[in-house]
Amino acid sequence: MTRSLISPHTPQDPTMSTSPRPLFAGIDIGGTTTQVVVCSDDLTVLDRAETATPAREGGRAMVGAALDALAPLLARVPGRLVGTGIGAAGVVDSVNGRILVASDSFRGWAGFTVTAAVEDGLGVPAYLDNDVNAFLYGEVYGGAVRGETDVLGMTLGTGVGGALWTNGALYAGPHGAAGEIGHIPGFGELPCSCGGRGHLETLASGRSITARYADRTGHRRTAREVAEAAGRGDDDALAVYRAAGEGIARAIVITAGVADITTVVVGGGVSRAWPLLEPFIQSALAADPPVSGHPVRLVQAALASDAVPVGAAARVRGELGTGVRSTA
Ligand SMILES: [Zn+2]
C-alpha cells in the first residue's frame, strides 16, 4: 500500500532530479537503551545506532544522548532530514510532545517537553508517541501486520504494553490509554507493578516470568532461562509459560469482544520464546474463541528492536503528509 513520495522525475520538472531524498529519523528512548534509525520515505532503515540512556540525568541529557547517536548517521546518509519521531516509555501527551508519567527508573523525565528539545536540536518537526503505540505503527507500516486495519499490539517486555489499531488508524483514546491490556484486572490476584492487582502483567512480563518461576521453585531465573528450562521439560517452567500464554489469550478474547480486532501482533523480549509461547496461546484461544466466531490471527512481531523507532518515523511521516500518498 505504501508508495514512494519520490515520483519518477520528468523532463517537465527538472528540479526533481536535484532535490535530495527525504529522510525520517526515529528514536526509541527506553529505560536502559536508546535506539535511533534513519529511514527512507518508504521506511526502509538506511542506518541505525544505539546508545545507553542516561535515565537518571534528566530529559535534556536523554534527548542529548539520542541526538548524539543520530548525528553520525545523518552525516553519512545522503538526503535531507524532514522529520523526527520519538517513542518513549510511559504515559505521553502526544499532542504537546511531553512526557506525563514516567517509571521510577527515570529522573527528570515526567513533564519534559521532548519534541521541543528535539526540534531545537535538529530544526525539523518532531512527534512523540508512547513506545507501544510506536511499536504498533512500525508493525502496521512495515512489519508483520503490514496494511492491516484492526490490530491489537502487545509488547511483553519488562512490563506488558498494549496498543489498538482500529479501522486503519491508531486509537489512543482521550487519555492515551486505549489498548492497555496489560493493566486490567481479572488475571488472578497477584500484585502488579502499577499498584493494581490481578493484571496480565503479573503473568506475562519478563519480570513476572522470573517471579512466578521463583514462586514455584525458589530459584530466580531470567525469562530466557525459564524458557530454556521449559525446553528441557522442566514442569515448573512449562507451567509458568502456560499461565502466561493463557493470560495472553484471555486478553486477546477480551479485546476481540470489545473492539472486534482481527489480528494480534506480539513483540518484546518475552516473545522471543515464540515456539514455546504460541502453542499455549493458540490452544487457549481454541478452547475459548472470540464471540464473533471469527478466529483472531496471531503473529509474532517482525521488526524486533527496529519496531519502535521505525514506528515513530512512520508517525512523523504520516503527520507531515508525505509518503503513503497515492501517485494516481
Ligand atoms: Zn498493572
Automatic annotation (TrEMBL):
Show the Pfam families listed in the entry: ROK (PF00480)
Alphabetized, the UniProt keywords read:
Kinase, Transferase
The organism named in the record is Streptomyces canarius
Drop me one GO molecular function for this one. kinase activity
- Compositional bias (Polar residues) spans? 1-20
Q: Which family does it belong to?
A: Belongs to the ROK (NagC/XylR) family.
Which InterPro entries does its entry note?
Answer: ATPase_NBD, ROK, ROK_cs
Q: What is this protein called?
A: Sugar kinase
Q: According to the UniProt record, where is the region Disordered? A: 1-22
